[in-house]
Structures are given as structure tokens and as C-alpha cells.
Amino acid sequence: MTDIKRILVPVDGSETSDRAIDEAIKIAEVYNSDIHILYVANINQLAINACLSDAILEAVTKAGNEILEKAASKVPEKINVITTSETGSPSVTITDFADEIKADLVVIGSRGLGLVKGVLLGSVSQYVVEHAPCPALVVK
Question: How far apart are CA 77 and CA 39, in angstroms?
Fold first, then answer.
């Protein structure tokens, strides 16, 4: 691997995203990398419920912040960690964000907490592997 300065870890609170954080920490310790933790609120899925009320948006934001805080708390103090919350389609938002921060590596869980678990398992990680501007490591 080349020099890895910025590692992007998309999280959703699932077990596999927790394992992705663990893997990113191991890599960051070797390369002295920054870890960027990204939570994407899938507003597109929520928009199916017609108009989004402020209460729903607030709840989604709060849940996202809790997931980010939990993920960031796993990272040792010696590693620089940056947390970001975005809204939109997770697949596209993750790859766009990787490009925006010039990530050297994306570490992503193989499956998350999608609303339709049984149907599209791994579709986000698959998209990221195919479209990310850098290498992607999928963690089971």
C-alpha cells in the first residue's frame, strides 16, 4: 500500500461498521493516518413517508450524532478523528465525500442497517468498491 494519510469510515451503528472502525484504527496506527468518520442520513428513504417534519429531521440528526460519537469514542486519542454527518443517498454521498476529502482508503462494513435488510445486503459497500476514487476495504 502507498502512504495512507486519510481513511474514510462510513458508519451506521451496525456491528460491521463497528468492525470497520476497528480495522481503520489498526491501519491508522501503522500509517499515522487521520480517520474521517461519516454518517449519512438516508433522507431519500425517509422521504417515502411524504413530507419530513422538523421532529423527524431532528430525530434523524440526533441518532446520527449518537452513532458518530460512539464510533469516534472507539478511536485512541493519538489518532486524529474527524466526524461528519451528511444527508442523501449513502452510496453516492460516501463516494463523493471520499473524493472531497481526498481519502486514500475507504473502510466500510459489508452490510449495514438498511430499511430492507434482506433485499439489498451489501449494495452500499458494493457501490463504494466500484465507484470510490481510492481503494476500498470491505469488512465482514
Answer: 20
Per-residue HEC secondary structure of the chain comes to CCCCCEEEEEECCCHHHHHHHHHHHHHHHHHCCEEEEEEEECHHHHHHHCCCCHHHHHHHHHHHHHHHHHHHHCCCCCCCEEEEEEECCHHHHHHHHHHHCCCCEEEEECCCCCCCCCCCCCHHHHHHHHHCCCCEEEEC
* Predicted pLDDT of residue 88: 85
> What is the distance in angstroms between the CA of the first residue and the CA of the last residue of the chain?
21
pLDDT(120) > 50: no
Per-residue pLDDT at 38: 97
Taking 80 as the threshold, does the pLDDT of residue 44 lie above it? no
User: Could you tell me if 1 and 99 are in contact, meaning their C-beta atoms sit under 8 angstroms apart?
Assistant: no
C-alpha angle 128-129-134 in degrees, rounded to nearest 5: 90
Global pTM? 0.88
